[in-house]
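Narrative summary of target 7.
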Amino acid sequence: MDLKSLIRDIPDFPKPGIMFRDITTLLRDREGLRYTIDTMAEKCAGLGADCIVGMESRGFIFGAPLAYKLGAGFVPVRKRGKLPAAVHFVEYELEYGTDRLEMHQDALLPGSRVLVADDLLATGGTAKATAEMLQLAGCEIVGFSFVIELTGLGGRQKLPEGVPVVALVEY
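Modeled conformation, tokenized:
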């Protein structure tokens, strides 16, 4: 299936010069969505993940059904202040300022084998911060799975060396 044909390009969003890759058109297509989840699961089945971690918010869309397909658990990584219990957190740099990701401290046991899932790998900041938090929690990161990778932005180089990265579509 040609997933690129289901992803809408929106020029100059959120600012001039940016080509936004809109996945809402992929999500509404029942065959495209099924193909995306099935293919992510196929490509990641051999990694032996016992839990999938998805980052807010589009990582939830792909991470939860991926966990279901792989027979794994799912753990959400949220933005600051969204989780009610004690959290692990990592602050990371944005283009203008910083942000913070959080995960419940009791969400994963040390030694858990974790696959990180999200819709997009661009500059790698969110995925890198998530990886750092998982490593602080004593988890083993077995892979990363993305629907889209923007290869020219170098995000893959920010991820832990030697950890498999799956991307279904590259721009």
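The two ends are 16 Å apart (CA to CA).
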